[in-house]
Here is the input.
Amino acid sequence: MTRLQAWLWPLVLLAMAGGPAVAENRLAATASDYLRDHADNPVDWYPWGEQALALAREQDKPIFVSVGYSTCYWCHVAKRELYEDPEIAAAMNEGFVNIKIDREQRPDLDRVLMAATRALGEGGGWPNNVFLTPDLEPFFAGSYFPPEPLPGRESFPQLLERLSDQWQSNREPLLERAEATAEALREGADTSLAPERIDPTDWRARAIKALEDQFDPLVGGFAPPGQSSRFPQSPRLALLLSALDGDDQAARAEPMLRQTLAAMSIGALFDHVGGGFHRYTVDPEWAIPHFEKMLVDNAQLIGHYARAGQRLDEDWFGDVAARSVGYLERRLWADEGSYFTAENAELDGIEGKSYVFTAEEIRAVLGEDAEAFLDWHQLAGLPESRIDHELPDGGAVNLAVGRALDAFERGELAESIAGFEPDYAALLEARQARGLPQRDRKQVAEFNALAGLGLLAAAQPLDRGDWHERAQAVGDWLWTRLWDADAQRLSRQVYEGQVSGEAFLSDHAAAGRLMLALYGTSHDIGWLFRAQRLAATIERDYLDESGRLHERPPQAAGGLPLSPPLTGDDASPSGHSQAVVFLLDLGAVLEDPARQARAVRALAGFAAQVDAAPADWGFLVGALARSSRAEVVTREAARLTEATQATVATGGPGETRDHVGVEARVAEGGAAILVRLVIDEGFHINANPASEDFLVPTRVKAVDGEIGTIDYPQGKAFRAEFARSAIDVYEGVIELRVPVTGGMPTRLLLDLQACDDEVCLAPDEVEVAVDQGGE
Here is the structure.
């Protein structure tokens, strides 16, 4: 290569990759450290939005969506290995419209895309990379793609070339797979449950039995057979804590809770030197952490440890809570009444470099005190990387398991470890001299509200009035910085001093819970006023006409054409769970049974999923099973049942099929079937397409035989008095022409949802025989 060629070659690669990155990359001005971290990539990234989606339609290109978050280690690896490579970027820019999403800004998109990945046969994890058609249907997905081929795995460049070529030359298999995947995600099971079957006490008993089946009796924690990683699973710990107050379940819950909390805090999931908890461990013994630290985990664990310490008379748990609050104050406090979101796992591109020590380093820092420290602590070596990434020199600091457990069983662990506080401080100073991991500087409403609730839960048992003041500061920050008085709703976050982002049900429900809890501890009526305003927003924006909850306002734009699946109380309580508990509790404080009835109706809308796997809804089940709430839920569920039965008995709404008559007959010499719908006066059914994604469109399917595409008639605009906008409906008598494209069907299935001026009935599937007698 000549000197001139050597000078020109970087410019050629830059042109291939889509032009100047720093000046033009669309992620540079976003309110996300994760997105900005990709701002100087040669990839022509877009944030999620209509600009990118329109470009994909206009250029007829598939969409590559990569979802991650700032403290995701493998997301950083992908950035270095893939997106900073000019040749890979050129292939991405040529064949795809490329979108980056911060999952903490758009949890709705994250959940839909993760469901798509699993539907496509992949295990999931972040980064989550999904290839979509321009119509937003997924056809391929995966997590880490290597830059070079590995045994049994194609490289990312090979994958890009294969999918791009197939899209251009033979896309039908991709489109068929995309349509099948999207249809599977759309169908989903009905998650409603008749109110009379809602039983929080039974749910908790079955949940604890399920946890017993998953419990690891050797090292604590819960995991299916064969899973090596261990997560704190805070909602499940909340469930066990709630059971301590019930005589029938306490004996089963207490050993699991005690052992799990002890194992997590003796192992290196807990940062013994600096306080706070890491995200998870890569081994079942809690010894080798994945080193990122997240506010959402620590927010919940500080309350769990403090409450368990009081309830189980265990000082060690109280010490762990206090040191975790100390970590939040030192590293995540944002100096304006809120907390940053997380802290990275890596330093200088090496995971764990901030945290590990060698025995020699410990001796150099502690001098003559080192041997006593090493007698009580052990250093767990990090496993070799499966793709040969650089490891830090040293091991993760654990307590010596046998010695620590013996002391714990004698009730002496807190006292035994107290003498190492000066050593921890010295090691922390040495550790910080290496440099500090980057923090995710988003200040998110939901996570901060959970932090405020955790501080309140810990303040009382540990007699820490300063933590109560911190919780009040978080509550004030949420209201003064994120509450929009004109729109009567929250924003999602503050980033670099700027408020931005759409808030979700989880933001409003968690903030509402915090406001109500602050009222309960201070009796300041201002907090109750704020809680009422948040409840009104939930009821206005996130409850639909049938009483079901939605993560986003049903009419909001900017999502995928699929509803986010409910995943239970996973790493933190779901928005659905928090909203039900918040509305129940606020109704109790205000002596407002109507609000409590709305909460139970909302619960009924997804209770079938809770009933099927109550252990997956640990926060909700534990909260509802507490005696005061269980009594209210049982009472309001009975009232709802009585009201429904009375309505049916008096000729009221009943079921959809009660108000829509259906006939079908062969027509046009067998070329078509005519379906006649007779809708009761005062009722209507949804047009096709439905005006909102939470409404079920009228739809005809064949049980047997083959039918073609139906040209559904235009709906009539209808607007109920309580609705903010009109929807398209069918009223009176409607005839649908169903073309026959193969064998003549003998039976048809119709998806229908009937509504009147006051309520939408549950969706119904009506089967009708086809009259073969002809015209």
Observations:
- The first helix runs from residue 3 to 16.
- Confidence is low (pLDDT under 50) at residues 1-23, 647-652.
